[in-house]
Amino acid sequence: MSNRPPFLQSLDLDQPGTRTGTVYLVGAGPGDPELLTLRAARLLGMADVVVYDNLVGKGILDMARPDAERVYVGKQKDNHTLPQQEINALLARLAKQGKQVVRLKGGDPFIFGRGGEELEVLAEEGIRYEVVPGITAASGVSCYTGIPLTHRDYAQSCLFTTGHLKDGSLNLDWEILAHPRQTVVIYMGLGALPEISSKLVEQGRAASTPVAVVEQGTTRRQRVATGTLATIAERVAEQKFKSPCLIIVGEVTQLHDKLQWFAGSVPQLATAVA
Ligand code: SAH
C-alpha cells in the first residue's frame, strides 16, 4: 500500500503491481428492483464481487454480472450476522486483490446502514471507494402506501429515528419525538413498538395520534397496519408482522386509506400505456 493520501491513490492505478480495486457502497433501495438508481444498476452489471445482506431483494441480485461472485454477509442460520469488523475487513481484502466490489445496502447506505463505519475502514487503509445513494425505506414505503411524509395540513417536518440502539437500549430524545405536527419515521422499531408508543404518549403526543406500520414495503408482500398510538402495538402483534417493518407516526398516516394505490405490483410501462 502506498503512503499517498487516499485522494491521490487513484494515480497509483497506472503503476504495475500497485493496482487495487474499488469498493462501491451502493444503496439498493427498499425492495422493488425498479427503485434502483441507474448508477446502481450499471455498477451491478460490471462488478467482480457483490457483497450483500438480508435487506437486498433477489430481483436486484439478478442484475449482477452472471459470473460475479456473490457474498452473503447477512443473518446466518444461527441468526447471527457476520460481525461488522469482518465485513469491513472482507471489503478491504477484496479491493486489495484488485477486485471491483459492489457492497449492496438496503435503502440508502448512509441512513441507518452502517455505511459510514464501512467507509472509515476503507479510508484508513487508503482504498478507493464511491458511494451511490439509494431510496431509503422512508421514501419508498411512504410513496408505496400513499402516506406523504409532509403535508401542509398535518406535518411541517419529518424526523427519522431508529428504534434500536447499538447497545440494545432505547434511549431516544422522547421529548422531541413527541412534538405535534411532525411525522416520525422509526426504522428497526418493530420489537420496541409497545415501548415506543407508550413513551410518546407519556411525553405528550396524543394517544389518538394515527400510526401506520408497513411490512416489506414496495414489495409484493407489502402489508400495512394502521391504528393509533394506543392501539397499534396490539394490531401489529395480532397480524404477526415481521421484520423489516417501518413505523410512521403522525396525522399523515390517515391519508393511507384515501391515497393508497399499490396492490402488490406496479404496472410495467408498456402495459400501462397500452
Ligand atoms: N439503510 C436502510 C435502512 C437499514 S435499517 C434504508 O435507508 O432504508 C433496516 C430497517 O429499515 C428495517 O428494520 C426497517 O425498519 C426499515 N426497512 C428497510 N426496508 C424496508 C421495507 N422494504 N419495508 C419496511 N421497512 C423497511
Helix and strand layout, with pairings?
Elements: E1 22-27, H1 38-46, E2 49-52, H2 58-61, E3 69-72, H3 84-96, E4 100-105, H4 115-124, E5 128-132, H5 137-145, E6 157-162, H6 174-177, E7 182-187, H7 193-202, E8 210-215, E9 223-228, H8 232-238, E10 245-249, H9 256-259, H10 269-273
The site of S-adenosyl-L-homocysteine has 23 residues, from α5 and β10.
Number of helices: 10
At the first level of CATH, the class of the largest domain is: Alpha Beta
Mind describing the biggest β-sheet?
A: 5 strands, parallel
What general outline do the C-alpha atoms trace? globular
* CATH architecture annotation of the largest domain: 2-Layer Sandwich
Q: Which range best describes the helical content: under 10%, 10-25%, 25-40%, 40-55%, 55-70% or over 70%?
A: 25-40%
Number of domains: 2
Strand order of the largest sheet: 3-2-4-1-5
Q: What's the β-strand tally? A: 10
Q: Terminal Cα separation, in Å?
A: 57 Å
CATH topology of the largest domain: Methyltransferase, Cobalt-precorrin-4 Transmethylase, Domain 2
